[in-house]
Every structure is written in C-alpha cells, then in structure tokens.
What does this fold into?
Amino acid sequence: MKDVQNTKGNYKFAINKVGVNNLIHPIRIKAKSGEAVATVGDFSLAVNLSKSLKGINMSRLPQLLSELNRDRFTIEDFKEDILKVLEEIKSRMESDNAYFEVEFDYFIEKQAPVSEYSGIAPYKCRIEGSLADGEYDLILTVEVPITTLCPCSKEISNYSAHNQRGYVKTSIRYNDLIYLEDIIKLVEEVGSCEIYPILKRVDEKYVTEKAYENPRFVEDVVRLVAEELKINPKVTWFRVSSRHQESIHPHDAYAMLESWK
It folds into this structure.
C-alpha cells in the first residue's frame, strides 16, 4: 500500500509543529495524598517536520496515547513523566523535536468552613512540555477561582462593599517535585476568601465576613502570589495573572506579572 506521507522531495519549508490536537482521553494525576485523581484530558501531540518529507505518520500519536492509557499511565512527577512521553514521541516519530500539551480539570474535595459539608472543587490545569533542539522545557499552569472584595469600595462606603469572583492563573517552571495542591493552596490563601463547592447559611456568613476583613485589588492578588513564588526554591520562573469579574462594572479587572528567579 502506497505510503504518501513518506514521499521525499523538496517541499520549500520545514514545519515547526505538526500533529494532532483536541484528542480526548482519560488521564490520572497522582494527588499529594498518594491517591490517583481520574479526569479527562484534552491532548495535543506534535513533532517537527523537515522540508525533505511530505508528512508525518500521524496515526502513531493517538496510538501512543491509547497505549499509555491501557497501561493505566498515572502522572505523578510532571517533569519526569512528561519527559518520558516526549522521548517516546521522538523515538516513534523519528523526529528531532517533540511537543506535548494537555488540559484537564483537577478535582479536590473541600469542606465548608463552618458546617464542614464536603463537595468537589474543580481546578483548570494545563501542562506544556517540549523536547526541542536538545532542550527540555515544561510549564505547569493552574487556574484557581477566589473571592475578592474591593478595598476602594470598602473605604468609601458607609456600609458593605462590592465583591468579585477572581480567576488566578499561575504558570511555573520548576526544578523539583511540586504538587497541584501546593499551588492551589498558595493562591487561595492570598484571596479575600476561598470559594467552596457547598455553603450553608453559617458558611455564607463566614465567607462574607472574611472577605470584608481581607479586601484585595487585582494588583494585590498577583503581587502576593508572586511574593510566595519568589521565595520558593523549587520555582525558577513564573507568570501570574488574575481576572476579576466586576459586580458593579461592565468590564473585568486584570493584572499580570512575570519573572525569572
């Protein structure tokens, strides 16, 4: 059977990335507790292509992912485990460079602060890995929802103040094992208050009053997260952004900062 994609020639341009995306597969992430959290990943796998080849053997990429899932592949150490996948992609595709991305929801059981009712809180996560030109790079991103209360509103009002729901996106490069729970906890502690999946009336009173006592601008949030990341010896680079959905304005408030250690 003729293999068209392996046709050799001079095709004018090399291609930086070619592969498959929107590839939906189950995935397991090892939690800090040691348990495996089951979720669904949206994968993107790619390689580079020289200008001497017409195409890649694309079916090998979803085949590799299916084999990993059959083996009940569980990601624990993101840097170590994703490097192994990238090396396997390079080997199977006979390529110089390999690229891996996956987006997924990570689930943590959280108790309400007073009633202690338990619920499941989802956190959007992303892993981006590349093995290109002999260099390995990995960026881990977590988005954490928080409650914030406007300091200006509190200052100028005789009573009450307006709140926002904030989404803090933290991306890091790092040199040692880091768990998603560590990043999530760091971010939740700098907001005006955490967001909980279940709240009874006693809990609503708690979170309302806690937020009132801890007002935060969007600028405050990214700076406070950055302070913690800056002193973490495992983190070598970070980018923190926060988007707050304003309750009294038609726009969102936004801030971002980025830093190498």
The mean pLDDT is 93. DSSP finds six helices and ten strands in the chain.
